[in-house]
Specification:
By secondary structure, this protein is of the alpha+beta class. The chain has 3 helices and 7 strands, in the order H-E-E-E-E-H-E-E-H-E.
Length: 132
């Protein structure tokens, strides 16, 4: 199983972004496979979006809902999705997270509007060798 497959199968992943001074800022998020990368969904004006806009360097690790990692972090590069890609990410999240995903997305749209959230696309660095 590749790192991408392993991370995409997790219910939560720990997305770590980096401040200007290099300090890590880890956040547990939902993640879903999106082609050759991972996609996550977040509030458009969140700190992680601002940090990714400045520096797309991230790490991703499997974790629990509280952000406690239970596996190795994998380096990658994140980009902010355009509105069309963000809608695709929302659809993928609805498929993976079923009812709770639909309810969360609906609640967010009612609170923040359609443009209040954005998709993030993460491509893992280097090869992702198979694991047994």
């Amino acid at each position: 199983m590749t790192d991408l497959d392993r991370l995409a199968a997790e219910k939560y992943v720990l997305l770590t972004t980096f401040r200007k001074d290099g300090r890590e800022v880890p956040t547990p998020v939902w993640a879903v496979r999106d082609g050759d990368g991972l996609a996550v969904w977040t509030v458009a004006d969140s700190g992680k979006v601002k940090r990714i806009r400045r520096d797309g360097r991230v790490t991703v690790a499997p974790c629990d809902v509280r952000g406690r990692p239970h596996g190795e972090a994998v380096p990658g590069h994140a980009t902010i999705a355009d509105p069309e890609s963000t809608n695709r990410v929302r659809g993928l999240l609805k498929q993976k997270y079923r009812l709770i995903g639909r309810l969360s997305l609906l609640g967010s749209r009612l609170r923040r509007g359609e443009g209040g959230t954005v998709g993030l696309r993460i491509v893992l660095d280097g090869p992702t060798p198979g694991r047994d």
